[in-house]
Amino acid sequence: MIDFGFDKLALIGAVALIVIGPERLPRVARTVGHLLGKAQRYVADVKAEVNRSIELEELKKMKGQFEDAAREVEKNVQSEINSANQAFEQTWGEVTGQTSIENSYASSAGYKPPKKNWRVKRGATPIWYKQRQGVRRHAQSGAARVARFRPPRRAA
């Protein structure tokens, strides 16, 4: 930036006092100071934006490096799992006398996943409590409800 010493500033002030005049000099000085402040803030904003973009690029590079490392670790783990699975299948086949195809068919044919009635809402309130409080647990039509609570017929 331009280097202004005290002597240069005094010379500029004296010339401004002569050219502008003593009445308008304070207002002009305020305006110049205001414009210089705006310029400094603008320069600071530009510097901050440049620094943010540089940091963003660095973060993108680090993200790429981490993703590559994670993919490599995932490949290594997957290969180790596959090799252990193959060794297990081979050992299991030797022990049972079945090939891996027969082994996978036998294991899949006999296995059934547990049945879950996903339509039934499983609440945390115990059934005995609901019965004691008279909470309805089953959906019931209006006619069925009327028939349930209808007083018994009297014999004529």
How would you describe this protein?
- One of its GO terms (cellular component) is TAT protein transport complex.
- InterPro entries: TatA/B/E (IPR003369), TatB (IPR018448).
- Residues 147-156 have a biased composition (Basic residues).
- It holds the Pfam family TatA_B_E.
- With 156 residues, the protein is an all-alpha fold.
- It has helices at residues 6-20, 25-96, 100-110, 127-133, 142-149.
- The mean pLDDT is 83.
Low-confidence runs: none
What gyration radius follows from the Cα positions, in whole Å? Answer: 43 Å
From the N-terminal CA to the C-terminal CA, the straight-line distance is 116 Å
- The helix count comes to 5
Topology summary:
Elements: H1 6-20, H2 25-96, H3 100-110, H4 127-133, H5 142-149
Q: What labels describe this entry?
A:
cell membrane; 0% strand; 156 residues; translocation; cell inner membrane; TatB; single chain
